[in-house]
Design goal:
- Helix content is about 35%, strand content about 25%.
- By secondary structure, the chain is α+β, with helices and mostly antiparallel strands.
- The chain folds into 3 domains: about 110 residues, Elongation Factor Tu (Ef-tu), domain 3, CATH 2.40.30; about 70 residues, OB fold (Dihydrolipoamide Acetyltransferase, E2P) (Beta Barrel), CATH 2.40.50.100; about 70 residues, Helix Hairpins (Orthogonal Bundle), CATH 1.10.287.
- α4 packs antiparallel against α5.
- It is elongated.
């Protein structure tokens, strides 16, 4: 090899003196990152209950939307023997229907409106019945004229029969004509009263003090008093009403919890939307037949003093309280 080529292969002095501390620093950082990853990735027993912020571990319950009711056993430690979720419902739902086929002329309420007993809520078209009423009034006028004429003929015939100018038969026929005219007037009066009744039925009034749950028809819509089958027929109801201060909680109770519930049992009701609100209630109804598919029995808890915070069809929790005598016995044993 020539001297010039050997000189080219030699490293510069500055390159041979470059510091080697950077390699060691990189090695230390890799070790630290590996140790941290092993520390946080190692499995622990508490990982199944990791919390975020102040969140508390939640108890696993079956919600009211499933087939089985949500039941919490924690109430057994105090006055409550059972806590179940259900739905708030109106005790009675009233649907106002027409008494005859007609056309809706006017609706004076909407969904959510409050109504009073006797308030006019719907008007049906009464044009036909008022026309018939005018026709009946005309027939009444004609019948009254016929009665007056029959009475005049009878009076004259009776006077002539006294002097033997008219026969007894003519007098009887004149008297019967008067009775027939009176009967015609009575018949027309009955027809007139019937038409007035129909006209009164075109005015639909609320039978209770309550709230409108649903408006089932619109103006100019045909309504009938009963369904003739099918889904495309005329409506059979006008509006649905309920009393806002008469609410219950409807519960599907599992059969294994039936022994803890009885009629008139005191309860505490708390809506899910307002858990700080608690209302007194009692078991008002226990269904006589169970649901075989779900294995539940329907229970209805009457709320004693409901207010605006209890909204029908929303969910609520019901605490069934233990019997007072059983509580006293538990205290005496202690």
């Amino acid at each position: 090899m020539k001297p010039e080529q050997a000189n080219r292969l030699k490293l510069d002095e500055e390159v041979r003196k470059r510091p080697k501390g950077a390699v060691g620093l990189i090695f230390v950082l890799v070790l630290l990152i590996t140790a941290v990853a092993i520390y946080f990735g190692w499995p622990r027993a508490s990982d199944s209950q990791r919390l975020i912020g102040d969140e508390k571990p939640k108890e696993t319950v079956v919600g009211a939307a499933t087939n089985a009711p949500a039941v919490s056993r924690r109430g057994e430690e105090g006055d409550s023997v059972l806590t179940v979720s259900g739905y708030i419902v109106n005790r009675e739902r009233i649907e106002l229907s027409p008494r005859f086929q007609g056309v809706v002329k006017w609706i004076g309420v909407t969904k959510g409106d409050s109504v009073t007993n006797g308030q006019v809520v719907v008007l049906l078209d009464d044009t036909e019945y008022r026309a018939r009423l005018r026709e009946t009034d005309g027939r009444m006028a004609v019948a009254k004229v016929a009665l007056e004429k029959a009475e005049l003929i009878w009076t004259r015939t009776r006077e002539l029969a006294k002097v033997n100018v008219e026969s007894k038969q003519a007098e009887d026929e004149a008297r019967l004509a008067v009775d027939s005219a009176k009967a015609s007037i009575q018949e027309i009066e009955g027809q007139r009263e019937l038409l007035l009744t129909y006209i009164d039925w075109t005015v639909i009034r609320s039978p209770i003090n309550g709230v409108v749950l649903e408006k089932l028809v619109d103006p100019n819509e045909l309504v009938v008093p009963q369904s003739f089958g099918g889904t495309r027929g005329p409506s059979t109801a006008l509006i649905a009403l309920a009393q806002g201060d008469d609410l219950q909680v409807e519960i599907d109770l599992n059969e294994q919890d039936l022994a803890k519930v009885y009629l008139k049992q005191e309860c505490k009701v708390s809506p899910e939307a307002y858990p700080d609100k608690v209302y007194d209630g009692y078991v008002a109804e226990i269904a006589p037949e169970a649901n075989r598919q779900k294995g539940t029995l329907q229970i209805k808890v009457q709320v004693r003093a409901p207010d605006k915070f209890l909204t029908p069809e929303l969910s609520a929790k019901v605490q069934f309280l233990r019997k007072p005598d059983s509580k006293e016995k538990a205290v005496s044993k202690q």
